Amino acid sequence: MPRPRSLTPDQLASAALAVLDRDGVAGLSMRTVAKELRMSTMGLYRYVADREELERLVVESVLGRVDTEPPAPDAPWEERIAVLVRRLRDTVGAHPAVVPLTITHRHRSRAGLRWSEAVLAVLTETGFDGARRVVALRALLSYVIGAIQLEHLGPLSGQGTVAISALPADEFPLLAETALRAQDVGAEEEFFGGLAALMRGLRDHPKA
Questions:
Q1: d(C-alpha 84, C-alpha 67), whole Å
Q2: pLDDT tens digits, one per residue of 124-166
């Protein structure tokens, strides 16, 4: 009998990521990843215990590509946070199906924890502490995760916006007008405009 081929965690993560990119979270299973690797499902069980372990491998692989080096210390704190947020958005946004998995496995991913640690370092240097720092980190995470999903699942340039802009003006006058204008707002303007508004709120949030 030939020896079973040896697979690295990176190869397993790459195969699972290929399935996620193509078929979404619903398509991820031991069977589909085994098929991607051209091996039997039972053969895959020699490497990972279950789908949850595959998810953790993918999350760590994707988040591990995020640059968490501290931005230039002489820049304003808002710009430094924006740099870290952009890095996360660009990396995770390339694989939007991974976003819900990052939420599920956020406390197990050391790569994701390193990003949070980098953000906290900037916030702490700026004077955030206690509950104010908790709220700031949570708000930034919520914004990035939600914005990435909206950008890819319900973009302003998509058919949903077109449909909303055609709503009857007598029933939804403001929503229809806003959706009509939204079609001219690009993804960068939407994301970083929202981020700037959020950080203005964080800056003005009173200390406890």
A1: 8
A2: 999 999 999 999 999 999 999 999 999 988 899 899 999 999 9
122, amino acid identity: V
Burial of residue 69 (CB within 10 Å: 0-12, 13-18, 19+) is exposed
Max CA-CA distance within the chain?
74
Q: What is the pLDDT of residues 159-188, one digit of tens each?
A: 999 999 999 999 999 999 999 999 899 999
Distance CA(191)–CA(76), nearest Å, equals 19
Tokens of 146: 């939600």
CA torsion 194-182-86-110 (nearest 10°) is: 80
Q: Which two tokens stand for residue 187?
A: 């993804």
List Cβ neighbours of 161 (8 Å cut-off, separation of 6 or more): 155, 179, 182, 183
Amino acid at 191: F
Which residues fall within 8 angstroms of residue 42, CB to CB, at 6 or more apart? none
- C-alpha distances in Å from residue 37, one per residue of 3, 69, 71, 94: 16, 34, 38, 22
Q: Please state the pTM of the whole predicted model.
A: 0.89
